[in-house]
Each structure stands twice: as C-alpha cells, then as structure tokens.
Amino acid sequence: MRKFSSPGDDEYEAAAGTVTVLSYTQPVPSHVSAAEEVGAAGYVWGALEVKICATDGEFTTSSQPWTLAYADGARIEPSRTTYDDFPKPEYIEDADVTAGDCSRGKIVYPVPGGERPVEAIYSTDDTPAMKWSLS
Description:
Blueprint: E1 2-6, E2 15-28, H1 34-38, E3 43-56, E4 58-60, E5 66-69, E6 75-76, E7 96-98, E8 102-112, E9 119-122, E10 130-133
C-alpha cells in the first residue's frame, strides 16, 4: 500500500488516500480475443486487481493512471473496452470516493501472451509514480 496526496486546484479539491495492487492474472478468458482487439497476433487479456481509498477529501477513480511495464521498457495501457465476461469485480470508471471510502476492482489489459509485465505503475499529473513488482 502506498500513500498519495493531491494538492487540488481551481477545479478539484485537495485529496489524500492509499492505493495498492492486490493481484495480477494472465491470461484471463473472454469471448473476444485480445489479439482481435489490438489487431496483433499473440495477445491475451491480463487483469490487474487494485484498491484505492480516500483518507481526506474526494476524488474520482479512473483506470488510466494504471500501466503495466515490461523488462524491455514497453508499457501497456488498460483496454478502453469492456466486455460482460471480463473478470469481476471490474474497476469502476468515474466512481466518486470520499474520505473513509474505497474502490476495488480489476482492470483488464491486452498484453503479449508470451511475456509477463514486471511492474504495475500508478501515475497521475498530481502524484509521483508508484510502482509494484509483479514478478
């Protein structure tokens, strides 16, 4: 678990909380193949389970700060598509989390089937990058 804080600005109030990676699973099944989704052979779906909690203020969740990093330096962003058979619970986009509340769920990525990511990275404009080893 890592702590974060965001100073706020004219649009958003200051907020603080904790964020953590609970697990990573690859491959995960779906009726639509990841290879079809990205248009490249050999891709499968991988799922990162995360939890974010607010200790002060309020913020809105997003899967976009979460990337997967590979040993060769490649990084992969979450799928912008969801399917009804993706692993549950899904990480909710745009959930409002207030002090004392948490949001937990799985974020799905199209990943190269023959490789595994070495790190999960959480990074926003307001917070320094936080990393978790997946090996």
